Amino acid sequence: MKIVVGTRGSKLALSQTNWVVDVLKRNNPHIEFEIKIIKTKGDIIQNVSLDKIGDKGLFVKEIEEKLLNKEIDMAVHSMKDMPSNLPEGLKFAAVPKREDYRDILVLKEGYKSIDDLPIGAKIGTGSKRRKYQLLKYRPDFNIVSIRGNVDTRIRKIKEENLDGVVLAAAGLHRLNIEDKISYYIPTDIILPAPAQGALAIEIRENDEIIEGIVNSLQDKETEIQVKAERAFLEGVNGSCHIPIGALCNISGNELKIEGLFGTEDGSKIIKKYIKGKPEDAKELGFKLAHMILEEMGKDER
Ligand SMILES: NCc1[nH]cc(CCC(=O)O)c1CC(=O)O
């Protein structure tokens, strides 16, 4: 038996996919795996700000087409790049254990923390979620819009004379360049993107064989967190144009989910949390979204 695994070709995508394939190979020595690189619209259009391309599933659509027409049998993505609804005929297989969900700063030589940056420091990020939350903590920051893969963005510190860039910890950990991380941003300063640090393994809906094979990677706690955070994302009906964050933590039999949602221009940002039982993860994510949307609407009237 041979399983063809589709992925984007970025270093990060390949390191994620290699990790998944290595574990699956170890668990299934009789199965052959082939990795197939697929270019997506998000990889081709590199010089335009993501929120100006504004297309949900920018990094996944071409890969999903190849799953549906059976050119590949499974796909590995970053869960946070996945739109809230999958196309007809596809589903997620088991979700592996999540990497660090925090955002981090890579800073220019000499700086160590968000607090020792000079007044008016230039910080690169293309994400409104990161931008408005940073500005809430440090209104003096000068936020510069940047794009590109992890290496490119780090290089822009020198090339564009920035004081630092914001990235996901998970990306640097997976690329084995965590030594470049200057500062882990506490989640009460920047709430991560829904499902940040988690992987998505996408398969055909009726493919029970592959589903069974992927099951060995399952992490129950991550699945519950991702369920709650993605329900919040679906509930606010968000896109990459608007600031959206969500983080679910489980402690014993208590689940807490925090959510953040704002206007496109950052003029209004609302952050709230609720607590409940882990088995109600999805309902709690939706409920929190509706609480926040309601408060959003109230002031607009
Ligand atoms: N926005 C792009 C993206 N999609 C997934 C990751 C890596 C982190 C993850 O798996 O959540 C990144 C890079 C980043 O945000 O710094």
From TrEMBL:
One of its GO terms (biological process) is protoporphyrinogen IX biosynthetic process. Pathway: Porphyrin-containing compound metabolism; protoporphyrin-IX biosynthesis; coproporphyrinogen-III from 5-aminolevulinate: step 2/4. Keywords: Porphyrin biosynthesis, Transferase. SUPFAM superfamilies: Periplasmic binding protein-like II (SSF53850), Porphobilinogen deaminase (hydroxymethylbilane synthase), C-terminal domain (SSF54782). Belongs to the HMBS family. PROSITE patterns: PORPHOBILINOGEN_DEAM. Monomer. This is Porphobilinogen deaminase. The porphobilinogen subunits are added to the dipyrromethane group. It comes from Tepidibacter formicigenes DSM 15518. Its cofactor is dipyrromethane.
